[in-house]
Amino acid sequence: MGAQRNTEQRIMAAAEKLFLEKGYILSTTTLIAKEAGVTHAMLHYYFRTKEQIFIKVLNKNLEELISSLRPVMVYQRPVWETLKEGIEMLFDFLNTHRQLAGLIYDVISYNPQLLEAYIQGLGGLKNKMFERHREMLEDEIRSGRINPISMEQIVYDIVTMNMAVFMSMTAMKNMIGFSSEKREEFIARQKSEIVSKIHYRLYGKLY
Amino acid sequence: MGAQRNTEQRIMAAAEKLFLEKGYILSTTTLIAKEAGVTHAMLHYYFRTKEQIFIKVLNKNLEELISSLRPVMVYQRPVWETLKEGIEMLFDFLNTHRQLAGLIYDVISYNPQLLEAYIQGLGGLKNKMFERHREMLEDEIRSGRINPISMEQIVYDIVTMNMAVFMSMTAMKNMIGFSSEKREEFIARQKSEIVSKIHYRLYGKLY
DNA sequence: ATTTGCATTAACAAAGTTGTTAAACAATAT
DNA sequence: ATATTGTTTAACAACTTTGTTAATGCAAAT
Question: Which of A23, A74, B115, B123 would staple A106 via disulfide (CB 3.0–4.6 Å)?
Answer without folding.
Answer: A23
